[in-house]
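Practice problem: predict the structure.
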Amino acid sequence: MQEQKNLAFIDGQNLYMGTAKREQNPWRINLKRFRIYLEQKYGIEKAYYFLGYVQEARDGLYEEIQAAGFVLIFREHNVAMLGKKKGNVDSDIIFNVMRRLYRGENFGKIFLVSGDGDYKMLVDFLIEEGRFGKMLFPNRQFASSLYKKLGSEYFDYLESVHGKIGQKKEKGSLGN
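Answer:
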């Protein structure tokens, strides 16, 4: 039997806030190295990178994300509300995962890149169904306490592989 390929769903804002914007020892992700790491370490065939909304000033970042091999997905917003709304992608990620399960799409396990506790019900369900890989927390401080009861086999910290997937801040991989 051929092994099914895994999928990753990345909360882009959470990843950025947990690495480049963290208070102590900020660092930037090298997106190409990160994508290769996801494939080699976790068997990720497709990695979906969710962002809040399109900003023309960030076109270079969007191109960089796509060039690194991520599928870029933006949250839909009413144009009048763009400056007033947080780009919260949690429900979009949850819906995407559940839609794939509902449709019976052929994939292995789901991996989430976030520290957000809003995914806890989804994680519990995926574990129950045998479809959860791991939660990849950007750093220990961004790991919601809701996940403390999970065994360590269900999570990793990206800060622990900083040397493999990080880059020097001057190169500006995440654009902010």
